[in-house]
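Recap from last week: sequence in, structure out.
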Amino acid sequence: MPIDLAEMLLDDGVTVIEAEVFEAGQEVNIKTEDGQSIPLPVGEIWTTGRDGISSTRRGYHW
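Predicted structure tokens:
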């Protein structure tokens, strides 16, 4: 059974991130243009809603 993932648009207006739920310790991926998912890199990103997401471990929201 497929899992429905939540999506957020980043402040660049193009990049989409996805996760089962956007909470600390949860896996977060970047959805590529061709529909693939890659782990969120370490660092900080911002959504269009100006929410900051920090990742201290590749692929995870912290």
